Amino acid sequence: MAPTAEGDKKFKPMVKKQIAHFEKRLLEERKRVLKELGHYDETFGSTPQGADGDLSSYSFHMADQGTDAMEREKAFLFASQEGRFLWHIDEALRRLYRAPETFGRCHQCGGEIGFDRLDALPHARFCIECKQREEDGKK
After folding, report:
1. What is the pTM of this model?
2. Whose CB has fewer CB within 10 Å in the chain, the N or C terminal residue?
3. Within 10 Å of residue 116's Cβ, how many Cβ atoms?
């Protein structure tokens, strides 16, 4: 692995104020995701008849059943994405609590992840250059 300009710099651990800021950001994101997942739980827990307010036991028209199935699949997809996002947030919190002195260090080059990047994505594991290289490699 070739050193990058960011990897050549010595990593400066964050001060307590910055660590507290990122902890707060991660906990806020976690709370938001859990709330969103709660909405999906309500969607998956409802019956097809109750979903549209019709409590009769008559079956839906086939087109309605198809639309409902598509909506459930879409909700499941979004819930899966939120679940993966929650996992990344929890991993970032683990890193922050286990080794706060290394939080904000790129997992690839060891350089510092910029404050602006971490503020936007507090669960980021890579600096912008390493993340760009990773995404370019996937193309």
Report:
1. 0.67
2. C
3. 9
